[in-house]
Amino acid sequence: MKKPSLCIVTPALADANNGNWQTARRWARMLSGHYAVRLVKQWPDGASTDDGADILLALHARRSAASVAAWAQAHPDKPLVLALTGTDLYRDIQSDASAQRSLALAHRLIVLQEQGPLELPQTLRAKCRVVFQSSTRRATLPKTRAHLRAVMVGHLRDEKAPQTLFEAARLIRPDEGIFIDHIGNELDPALGEAARATQRDCPHYRWLGGLPHAATRSRIQRAHGLVHTSRMEGGAHVIMEAVLCGTPVLASRIAGNVGMLGADYGGYFPPGDATALAALLREVRRDIATAGGKLAALQAQCEARAPLFDPAAEQAGLLGVLAELL
Hints:
The protein has 2 domains: 146 residues, Glycogen Phosphorylase B (Rossmann fold); 161 residues, Glycogen Phosphorylase B (Rossmann fold, 3-Layer(aba) Sandwich). 41% of the residues lie in helices and 16% in strands. Helix 3 crosses helix 4, helix 5 packs parallel to helix 6 and helix 5 crosses helix 10. The model has no long low-confidence stretch (mean pLDDT 93). By secondary structure, it is of the alpha/beta class.
């Protein structure tokens, strides 16, 4: 029997090397056994198969708004699913008319963590589904007790709030045994210059620029902890990857992170609070040296969340959403 056809619209393709692209590529792979899947940057894109697609799945309410509107006009009776990102949930749908229209036109909305539905108007929550992202498990590696190695992963842009990490690094002395690696491309020149200045002034901080996905995952696996300073997240891919290799997360207490790690998680700091982040890093450093319980407790809390990020659960969630509409 012929598979139904699915067009996935993602504003970020492989050259972006960001979370949206990782999500789109993974979803295409997961759904390809059940659907004839095509990944495009916009719809229509001039392909002869456009009019034959059975369902559209678009990522990003604002950046894919033109594709969503074009599909709804051309195929008002065909299913339209919209996956919402962090900038969608925590910025664009509050004020951007095109993003708001995308919400109205979609038959189903997907959010990537359990706090996401709370950002939607009450009238739209009935068509919203939570689908956690997933990745493969990696072994939890033994770590040295001689020092703390922390890693932050995120391109240098305002939403990721790297300034908090820069400030925390400056609050920590080079002799405290806390080493910070920072992975991410320079998307904002001012933040790139700030990263270079921090690296120049703080020998315990290294900005490594953008790295391939496999190399990034390896560094997360080898670190004692992942630092995540974002002020806006829809469901950070990197948090899930850290959890699945047994690396605890030190995260800003924002809705997108709480929706991934749980309300009672013990590794939060107030968003933008570099002093609190530095204190948390020092606490974990002392714990490593004295074999205390803080790091082990965070690791246990992360492990309890790990089943949410299983690939089979993500695939079942996606197939369930699509099955509701076909």
